[in-house]
Amino acid sequence: MDKILEGLVSSSHPLPLKRVIVRKVVESAEHWLDKAQCEAMFDLTTRLILEGQDPFQRQVGHQVLEAYARYHRPEFESFFNKTFVLSLLQQGYHSLDRKDVAILDYIHNGLKLIMSCPSVLDLFSLLQVEVLRMVCERPEPQLCARLSDLLTDFVQCIPKGKLSITFCQQLVRTISHFQCVSTQERELREYVSQVTKVSNLLQNIWKAEPATLLPSLQEVFASISSTDASFEPSVALASLVQHIPLQMITVLIRSLTTDPNVKDASMTQALCRMIDWLSWPLAQHVDTWVIALLKGLAAVQKFTILIDVTLLKIELVFNRLWFPLVRPGALAVLSHMLLSFQHSPEAFHLIIPHVVNLVHSFKSDGLPSSTAFLVQLTELIHCMMYHYSGFPDLYEPILEAIKDFPKPSEEKIKLILNQSAWTSQSNSLASCLSRLSGKSETGKTGLINLGNTCYMNSVIQALFMATDFRRQVLSLNLNGCNSLMKKLQHLFAFLAHTQREAYAPRIFFEASRPPWFTPRSQQDCSEYLRFLLDRLHEEEKILRVQSSHKASEILECSETSLQEVTSKAAELTETPRTSDGEKTLIEKMFGGKLRTHICCLNCRSTSQKVEAFTDLSLAFCPSSLENMSFQDTASSPNAQDGGLMQATVPSPSEEPVVYNPTTAAFICDSVVNERTTGSPPDEFYCSENTSVSNESNKILVNKDVPQKPGGETTPSVTDLLNYFLAPEILTGDNQYYCGNCASLQNAEKTMQITEEPEYLILTLLRFSYDQKYHVRRKILDNVSLPLVLELPVKRTTSFSSLSESWSVDVDFTDISENLAKKLKPSGTDEASCTKLVPYLLSSVVVHSGISSESGHYYSYARNVTSTESSYQMCHQSEALSLASSHGHLLGRDSSSAIIEQDLENKEMSKEWFLFNDSRVTFTSFQSVQKITSRFPKDTAYVLLYKKQNSTNGLSGNNPTSGLWINGDPPLQKELMDAITKDNKLYLQEQELNARARALQAASASCSFRPNGFDDNDPPGSCGPTGGGGGGGFNTVGRLVF
């Protein structure tokens, strides 16, 4: 058979024919062969793999070898023996050099084939010695990466005991010799990938054998501190930095800076080379280590080294700002170097010739990330020019280039300079990193910012604090499922039970991030919330339909893209749900119904449609925005049949319309854009300067809105909800196509909520479109947040048979009736059917900043359950009925103000929490109310209100079914095991950190603050500027949030 195969692969037959014959040869492997025939076949296939003339021959060799090794395992074990493998590693194979990567690949595959054979143990022992010899020979990156692949798959081949320390040290030396001479992108990417594999191998060894870590780091320092002019260590060593535990930074830096055996020349070389590492892509924490070493040297007053390194490397660090991948780290190091170099303008003046070009380039590209970067850079430059005044000829071009960016106050500049000086670093090493600590006194867990993920963190904390929703998620049995809901359950479980102060939601972020969201860039939290709820809803719908169609099969859950989810849901669900038992969890918790009613003003025929919603987007009344022109910027996918929608309201530029008081108690017309499938398109947009007849009865309903000093009004959420529900006249370009008239006609559209959700989500449309500059701007108007909100819900029987599609009713012929009655079906008394459903404020997501593309999100929240304060609602029914009888849906002069005041006295004492990424603190409702007045850029954006019921209404939560902690259900064993394992790891980290602190107990706090903010900063602050508006330069962590 081997002769046939050898003749075949070298013949000139067509390739398809060869493949057919090869398949026959592979199939014949299961037949019996004697030992000599097997050995001949193994020898031939080995030759084809290692010396094949073309890819086809090598592929045939792999296929046939694997087939014959599988069916003739003893014979292959005898062939692939210790002697053969040793000869390959030391002598090569025929003409093939022993350092060829093909030999390592062959051995790697051979180990897989005999993994279950006893002789593999002998091979492991052999390879433990040989791999050490190989790394001592300084293999090239490609060969070293293949060796790392082998050792990653077969950890038994890694040297053990003392040899493992030697192996790690030699591997570090090997990395220090790596070089990539190519400038082509493909080759550079391949080189980075190879280095990453080797550094990952070292990381795995350090984790498995912690005793190897310190000797490895000593070897790294020995390489970068070498003063041998003939040897320049590779920048690839930067790939190891991200694997060094940050808890060790204090101990290691202190050891280096105080070690008398480390000469100044060696330290200078080491620091310079660490700064060179800033150019290594994908490396993390390099800037943290560089700044920590700079501070450590300042603490021991080694100013000569600092001066030499700063002047030598400041231009190189500045040039790294051109590259997006390394820009944040380079900016952090540049800021520290310049701000600490306060004895001379020399370092600053070295970069001045390059500043203007950089600023102009970044201003021209118009990217939000570039603008945010320029804001930070401008602040740094202003600090330096303030400190080194007296050079107008040098500074004038720079001032002209940065004139459009904000200038920090003199007080702030002084603060930054004082905190950054070298003299302020004395005895400051202990606090260079925020210490690990357990949960704060609040008992709540923060969420670590993964790089501009505050939009997700704030939303997740708000959902977590939605108590009934959290309990429902935690009580789900999702074992064996890999759905997004499973990941949300995992995240909720860790937030509830971890001992960490803050948790990193990396897995959930990757699974829940909308495909169009750019990683590490600021996004709209409202858009993210809509995407998340819709994804969870559609996912549950598909799983439910699949389980009903395939009840006999085991359902395997898998992650699905939004497009796949939506398309499957459209195919599998054709009939709308009617009963609560058929609703998804998202529908039960956040789903409501909204009825849209259109009356043709010519023939008086009506059309109506009932649709589901998960949130209401509330626009600001145009009258309160003066001459500004706004439009809706919230985006959400069209709802599929049977799906959920978001009712959104663009903020128009038209004048407000006043209404007959017998029709409604509103000041502004509602401009509604229903982004749902099947909605009439253009005729839903508001026309300009429309009005209603009966001029004598027009009133300004907003007359009793509270006044700010100076006569300015402060609208409330109640006013915005009034505006949302106000009737709208469709005329001009927005005329409605009437089927009865068979033409475009003026019409009036009204909206009514017919079914209220358990949790009412309200989004305040704060981002407007500036038509002059073609950018989105933020509406910074303060909005009063009522603790108690009454939602008007129309419960009528005349529309009970209404299908969720547009229909035409009979004409109204009585022209003398008022307009409100003409919009109602005959025999219906809407005033008697309106019920004001009470809601309590559960959480507020705040946006800090002046645009949607930048800034910071944080949230206020508290625990509110269905039955909480229900006793307070009992005495409200009479007052609510009284309010309704006066014809006010949400009027401020109704008894709701009295009820709200009564509830506020009771509810304000309840605990509110401020969730600001990793930081969680106690706060109060007064702080929530005053946030915008204290910090004008910090405004409420997304609100969650919890409906108050006399009973819970959620039958799934039965505390008697198991041990419920603080009302939460017991966790699944899989979840509890994961949390227990992580908590043990956390305790080990705490122990390591405690030992590190004990070594430098005499050290004082560092000059820059840990992750948090001063009492004088707003909660959304990312530094002295507050509001996410740029941050200061006195800290690494505050530069990018």
From TrEMBL:
Domain annotation USP: ranges: 445-948
CDD domains: Peptidase_C19H (cd02664)
GO CC term (a single one): cytosol
Coiled-coil portions: none
Keyword Hydrolase included in the entry's annotation: yes
Gene3D superfamilies attached to this UniProt entry: Cysteine proteinases
Superkingdom, natural source: Eukaryota
The protein's name: Ubiquitin carboxyl-terminal hydrolase 38
Annotated keywords: Hydrolase
InterPro entries with a match to the protein in the record: Papain-like_cys_pep_sf, Peptidase_C19, Peptidase_C19_UCH, USP, USP38, Usp38-like_N, USP_CS
Keyword Hydrolase: yes
A single MF term (Gene Ontology): cysteine-type deubiquitinase activity
Listed GO biological process terms: antiviral innate immune response; G1/S transition of mitotic cell cycle; negative regulation of innate immune response; negative regulation of proteasomal ubiquitin-dependent protein catabolic process; proteasome-mediated ubiquitin-dependent protein catabolic process; protein K33-linked deubiquitination; protein K48-linked ubiquitination
Pfam families per UniProt: UCH (PF00443), Usp38-like_N (PF21246)
